[in-house]
Known about the structure:
Layout: H1 2-13, H2 32-37, E1 45-50, E2 53-59, H3 64-73
Antiparallel strand pairs: 1-2
Helix pairs in contact: 1-3
Amino acid sequence: VCRQQQKTIERVTAEPAMRAMQIFRIDYDTQKPLWRRFGATQQSTLIAFRGRRETGRIAHETDDAKVSAVIRGAIA
Length: 76
C-alpha cells in the first residue's frame, strides 16, 4: 500500500503548484511515538496539513483519486 501511495504522491507533488509542499514520512515500525502523536492507528496513513491545520486523512488507501484529493486539499 505504501509503495502504491508513493507513486501517486510523487506524481502529484511534481506538479508546479506543489513546489512548496514538504513531504514527511514516519516509519510505522520504528517511530511509534511520533505516529501516535499524529493519531495514526494503522500503517499507510496519509495525513495532509496546511500549516498546523490538518486538511485531510486517509488510511490504507491506494485509490489514485482519493490519495490525490488528500494531497491537493493541503493547498486549497
